[in-house]
Amino acid sequence: TPLFTIENLHAGIEGKEILRGLDLTVNRGEIHALMGPNGSGKSTLAYVIAGHPNYEVYEGRILYKGENILEMTPDERAKLGLFLAFQYPTAIPGVTVANFLRLAVNSVRKARYGEDKALSPREFRRLMREKLAMLRMDESFATRYLNEGFSGGEKKRAEILQMALLEPEFAILDETDSGLDIDALRTVADGVNALFNPNMAMLIITHYQRVLSYIKPHFVHVMLDGRIVASGGPELAEELEAKGYDWLKAEFAEAA
Ligand code: ADP
Ligand code: MG
Ligand code: MG
Fold first, then answer.
1. From the CA of 139, how far away is ligand 3's center (Å)?
2. Which of 45, 52, 158, 225 is most buried, taking the most CB atoms under 10 A from its CB?
3. Which ipTM score applies to this complex?
4. Cα(179)–Cα(181) distance, rounded to whole angstroms?
5. What separation, in Å, do the N-terminal and C-terminal C-alpha atoms of the chain show?
6. Which residue ranges does the record assign to the ABC transporter domain (predicted)?
7. What's the total number of domains in the chain?
8. What's the predicted TM-score (pTM) here?
């Protein structure tokens, strides 16, 4: 069975339908890119998968490892190995990156592997050093206060570090590339590529084709008005880069 399946998802906010019959299947070992113009519903989809309480599901199912996650709390979803890159708090005074991540990692480890599987401070420091090295990040990063004075690129690095430590089975990155200069983009992409393994899957949500030069997706989907209207291989992203979204809009306005 697939790792992750969305069937006929209709969802929105305050009675306003934003996702209008969305289907998607993701298998382990696959990187999927979800592209689409602003306002097409990409972030709404990410929030609905995460279980954000402001969003309402009107119809459909989201199956993850065979279970309908729509019946689970956001916490239960995270503990099943689902990871969303925007899920980190804003600046917390006095909490370092390392302390925040140790709490997050141990909460997930206890739920996934058992109460006795939390890491001691020493074990955690070792794991953190290993992941920092893997991501080619400086060790001093871990002792900084979370998000206090972080640049856009550093916030994204903190997310990637969190992902590295949580070892998710399905990771969703919503616009992780937006606002990054080329060096930060490359660092984030290198990190994602280093973390990816055949037992997991990723959904990269992006408006721009640019990040897909660094993270090579196996499948590309285009979202328009709350539905996936086209799916293909990496060549679809290149076509969108060359032609923009307007030709798809024109095509689907005719069909509607
Ligand atoms: P994308 O991420 O593709 O740019 P969004 O999911 O952010 O798209 O938005 C999809 C649509 O839902 C837009 O028309 C937007 O105005 C609307 N929308 C998003 N969030 C809210 C909200 N909190 N309240 C009302 N409408 C919203
Ligand atoms: Mg439908
Ligand atoms: Mg968005």
1. 31
2. 45
3. 0.93
4. 7
5. 33
6. 4-250
7. 1
8. 0.91
